[in-house]
Amino acid sequence: MSVNTFDIESELLRRISHGDQDAFKVIYERFHEKVYTFSLWYLKSEVEAEEVVQEVFLKLWQLGAGCTKIGNLAGFLKTLSRNRSLDILRKRAHAVRAGSAIAASWQETHNDTEKQVMLKDAKKILEEAIELLPEQQKLVYRLCGQQGLKNDDVAKRLNLSPLTVRTHMKLALRFLRTYLVRHTDVAVVLIVLKIC
Predict the structure, then answer these.
(1) Any long-range contacts for 164-168 (C-beta under 8 Å, 24+ apart)?
(2) CA atoms of 12 and 33, how far apart (whole Å)
(3) Is residue 6 scored above 80 in pLDDT?
(4) Is the pLDDT of residue 60 over 50?
């Protein structure tokens, strides 16, 4: 990093520490693609990588006066991105283990008729949640989440940017998860997340 770049970043961080949103926007525009690409490499999920971007920059903003203590901004953001990505991978692994345990217990304690009823109920609750989404999010979710189209294909079909599609998908998934958690028990959430 050149001295000039270092000085510019130090000044931007100093301004961010005083709540300067314009300085924050400059940093965001300079680094958000790098954070996204780095997180995507770990997570292999565009939606989760986009969540990491939002969380990393939110954390930077929330540092306030702590921003002035950052000596290497690129390294700092990379470390935050890696740590958050690893957290998500750990939660993902935990969810898989929990899902397997619940599935095993389910098979032992319920017959096929009960499973079909619960699966039908789960799909119904998911469909209710999807219908509550704003129109654009609903359309993106149906194309990406249910039909399995890639973000770039959906972007072309809907005449949107891939970033807009990712954002709609991220917001839709966040809403659906919240809705499912509030309206079902853990077993149903796990079943729905496997079918959605």
Answers:
(1) 165/140, 166/46, 166/47, 166/50, 167/50, 168/136, 168/137, 168/140, 168/141
(2) 18
(3) no
(4) yes
How far CA 79 is from CA of 70, 73, 91, 123, in Å, comes to: 12, 10, 18, 39
Q: Answer yes or no: are the C-beta atoms of 186 and 165 closer than 8 Å.
A: no
Rounded CA separation 99/9 (Å):
45
pLDDT at 195: 42
Domain boundaries for CATH 1.10.1740.10 within the chain = 3-87
Q: Among 1.10.10.10, 3.90.870.10, 3.40.50.800, 3.40.50.300, name the CATH number for the domain at 110-195.
A: 1.10.10.10
Q: How far apart are CA 159 and CA 171, in angstroms?
A: 19
Whole-prediction pTM value? Answer: 0.49
57-64: list long-range contacts, CB under 8 Å, 24+ apart. Answer: 57/24, 57/27, 57/28, 57/32, 60/16, 60/24, 60/27, 61/16, 61/24, 63/16, 63/17, 64/17, 64/19
Residue with tokens 């979710």: 141
What's the CATH number of domain 3-87, 3.40.30.10, 3.40.800.10, 3.40.50.150, 1.10.1740.10?
A: 1.10.1740.10
